[in-house]
Amino acid sequence: MPVPIWAGRYIGLPFTEHGRDRNGIDCWGLVRLTLLEQFSISLPSLANEYRRTADATRIAGLMEREIPLWQGIDAGDERCGDVIVLRLSGHPMHVGLVLGDGQMLHVEQGIDSAIEKYRGQRWQDRVYGFYRHIPQG
């Protein structure tokens, strides 16, 4: 599946700790904003769940707290709109949004939001898992 055209609207947003809007955003904020605007999925802010992005050593646990709203997806079955959780320093603490063709939208400290291959050299060994939001009712 090719990367959707709307993804371009999220490229270049600046990184800001606990940022939740286009003026500045962290990885969870970017996923949250995109899922709301493109898929009408409203997620909690979680800005108070950690002090700094570097402290969020179990961001996967933050998502798992929302179970049964999140379902783990097998690698290869992911699709546009799924959340990818990635390991940094050996811990699942970074998230991005799957776009298609093995690419994700994400933002990191020191790097504005961008589209990057999660099957590329930098990320392929860091994939912790994929999650799909399952609507209630």
Uncertain spans:
none
Large-scale geometry: globular
Strand order of the biggest β-sheet: 3-8-4-5-6-7
What is the percent of helical residues? Answer: 10-25%
CATH fold group: endopeptidase fold (from Nostoc punctiforme)
Tally of helical runs? 2
Provide the succession of SSEs.
EEHHEEEEEE
Separation, N- and C-terminal Cα atoms? 28 Å
- Count of discrete domains: 1
CATH superfamily: endopeptidase domain like (from Nostoc punctiforme)
Number of E strands: 8
Mean pLDDT value: 86
What fraction of residues sit in β-strands? 25-35%
CATH class label: Alpha Beta
* Radius of gyration based on Cα positions: 13 Å
By CATH, the architecture is named Alpha-Beta Complex
Structural class assignment? alpha+beta
- Please describe the biggest sheet, giving its number of strands, its sense, and whether it closes into a barrel: 6 strands, antiparallel
